[in-house]
């Protein structure tokens, strides 16, 4: 581990791509007047007149409009359209209304918007307790992650599979206001499949719950997997609803990009109540119980070895290079295979192994391992593996007691 000298200044964090857009309004030539009007309407602004066919006068949400109004042209058909757009954008950038900031984000980064509401007790003056907001943010992130996982594959339970690529998809998502309400802006260019999958999965989950409560059967949850419902999604819904009188989730499509295929426009938010919690928990347990193990052939670098004595079988931990989308797996090898893995580790080579990736433990364990062989790699990869070996020598324990407790 390296330590930064105390006198060295901390490097500033890289600004979020949307930060500059919030501080500097877009150029009028970059803005479609129809998109701006659609975003204002979505975020609660009221149209209060204006010259028909030329422009509309918009005021912010709330009583009295906070003394602000915008003149927004309906098209670029008139010579003063750019001037009106420029004035409206500057007024939005200077407004203290939270919705103004969200409108600017929607203009700067064309995005589908996901919104969560929780009907939970409020603190003084309507403020949300810290724990309530933290629970909302955690549940919302887990829900987006579940949707991102469903864009990679369909499964009732993912465990550690596809986590890295799913988490990478969330990096472009922007987050709005908090409290009892939270908004996420999902960029169309990089993450629209996430919003589409979440939209479809929420409705499938709602239908499966209604079917179970009407008939007592859980069969609808089997078909819901194809729409993106999983244990990860049911757990996120439980976290969102628990401790509240109910919760709602809405997905609104970017007015600049339009409604995606196979999705409906202008649909109502999907609602979940505390009465749904037993069904959601049962569905999550069912997904966990019934997701099968997977036959795999994995290539990985040995990063940890342990066995109870100088001979016999031992436990090996691999950093996965290819074969399955999990970061690490653990497997038990017989004496000969353990020796091969140890030699490969010492010379900086990965190994290839056949087996079954077990759902128990989150798809982190290989059973019935066989065919362990070293794999030749190019010089650059071998140098990198050798460097990793040198850095991890303290952890290379070929003959020490106890099972590997990690993962």
Q: How would you portray this structure in words?
A:
The chain folds into 3 domains: 19-108, no CATH class; 112-290, no CATH class; 294-395, DNA polymerase B, N domain, beta-barrel (OB fold (Dihydrolipoamide Acetyltransferase, E2P), Beta Barrel), CATH 2.40.50.590. Helix content is 38%, strand content 20%. The chain has helices at 19-23, 33-42, 81-94, 98-108, 130-152, 163-169, 188-215, 220-224, 231-241, 277-290, 335-346, 379-391; strands at residues 46-47, 55-59, 70-73, 111-118, 174-175, 181-187, 247-252, 270-272, 294-306, 314-322, 328-333, 351-358, 365-374. Strand 1 and strand 2 (55-59) form a beta hairpin. Helix 5 crosses helix 7, helix 5 (130-152) packs antiparallel against helix 9 (231-241) and helix 9 (231-241) runs antiparallel to helix 10. It starts with 18 loop residues before the first helix and ends in a 16-residue tail after the last helix. Mean pLDDT is 84; it is low at 1-23 and 392-407.
Describe what is shown at a glance.
With about 400 residues, the protein is α+β, with helices and mostly antiparallel strands. Helices cover about 40% and strands about 20% of the residues.
Strand order of the largest sheet: 5-6-4-7-8
Return the structural class.
alpha+beta
- Count of runs of 4 or more consecutive helical residues: 12
Order of helices and strands: HHEEEHHEHHEEHHHEEHEEEHEEH
Q: How many strands in all? A: 13
The poorly predicted ranges are 1-23, 392-407
Reported for the largest beta sheet, the result is: 5 strands, antiparallel
The first-to-last residue Cα distance is 22 Å
Rg calculated over all Cα atoms:
27 Å
- Tally of discrete structural domains: 3
Strand content: 15-25%
Q: What would you call the shape?
A: elongated
Which whole number gives the mean pLDDT? 84
Helix content: 25-40%
